[in-house]
Amino acid sequence: MEVKARAPGKIILSGEHAVVHGSTAVAASIDLFTYVTLSFATAGNDDSVKLQLKDMALEFSWPIRRIREALSSLAAPSSTPTSCSIESVKSISALVEEQNIPEAKIALASGVSAFLWLYTSIQGFKPATVIVTSDLPLGSGLGSSAAFCVALSAALLAFSDSVTVDTKLQGWSIFGESDLELLNKWAYEGEKIIHGKPSGIDNTVSTYGNMIKFRSGNLTRIKPSMPLKMLITNTKVGRNTKALVAGVSERTLRHPNAMSFVFNAVDSISNELANIIQSPASDDVSITQKEEKLEELMEMNQGLLQCMGVSHASIETVLRTTLKYKLASKLTGAGGGGCVLTLLPSLLSRTVVDKVIAELESCGFQCLTAGIGGNGVEICFGGSS
Ligand SMILES: Nc1ncnc2c1ncn2[C@@H]1O[C@H](COP(=O)(O)OP(=O)(O)OP(=O)(O)O)[C@@H](O)[C@H]1O
Ligand SMILES: C[C@@](O)(CCO)CC(=O)[O-]
Ligand SMILES: [Mg+2]
Fold first, then answer.
1. How many angstroms separate the CA atoms of 126 and 119, rounded?
2. What is the CB < 6 Å shell around ligand 2?
3. Which residues constitute the domain of residue 121?
4. Given Cys at both, which of 33, 50, 156, 202 links 129, Cβ 3.0 to 4.6 Å?
5. Which pLDDT score is estimated for 283?
6. Which residues of the chain have pLDDT under 50?
7. What's the 241 CA to ligand 2 centre distance in angstroms?
8. How far is the CA of 139 from the centre of ligand 1 (A)?
9. Could you list the residue ranges forming a coiled coil in this record (predicted)?
């Protein structure tokens, strides 16, 4: 019995951080995925849960009796998404520590904890092997944590009584609307273990795909009426979303008034940006004019992110470099390093794009051009895809 799930990463076009404090944000899925394969032992003599992080060349294994002993108070499996209690967080941390993750890869510990919570909550104490691979750079602002939690929830739910899926379906298939809602809620519980206080935008866009507007847990689907091309530059400066989100919250506690104006401004920027993307181009408002407005809004959003304290010298270098070519950029995701978006206007020549990429890469950055707005989470039975 085997199922493979894939969930996309994302870019945030406007509103990161402010969305944690109730502002509107706009995000889109990208065609870079995290894949999770779940298989249950058939022979019956393997009595452990194994997690293989293939890209990292790491493998973890827990005997079922050890998991059962550590999480004895858990009423597993559960059909409704539940938060990991402080007591369970401690037990799970002990299970993760026993695996002796190398110091250089210790950031993975929170992902492994999220895995143990989602696995035991949805599947209970059942032996299995879970294999994870990803196209996404981890901890870089492209939603790797959310894609991991969404793909994991999808694979685990596919073999649970909580959802109705046809295991005989061939190729990649999608979940029904109510199953997606359940899956998204489970993924959010995983994100909480990794992020501390996530808004839920990352797991939501990874679940539903396409482009969304998100505010206080509610999503509105956006139908773009114009092509949108973004260059994604990975500064390769590592950072972690949990610490950056906590930093903004601390600044908000110190300066509540000033920060509430910043968050309100971001809310207006996101709404305006969503309107521009959706409104049809007409003779008097050409695609170019719309792109110019988007560029201005991206610059304004970046200024406010600087105000929140989440920019970084490497991000500023990308901004300066792209500005030389009259291109507008903003950080995407949690900032503090990670990835930067640059709008590539539709009339921009390939020569200019190549020059910008060459200059950014000469600074040691890595440039990606990903497709924007594709499908959300999908599953495939039988391991054929
Ligand atoms: N494929 C994966 N395997 C295991 N753990 C993962 C994987 N992808 C993400 N994680 C977990 O998520 C952490 C990175 O999450 P973090 O939220 O800091 O960055 P991000 O999600 O890539 O960026 P952002 O939240 O800004 O979009 C990793 O350190 C790890 O714990
Ligand atoms: C920084 C943040 O706004 C986006 C991270 O991609 C955090 C969140 O919304 O959970
Ligand atoms: Mg994340």
1. 9
2. 12, 16-17, 19-20, 143, 195, 198-199, 201-202, 241, 245, 333-334
3. 2-222+374-382
4. 50
5. 65
6. 384
7. 7
8. 5
9. none
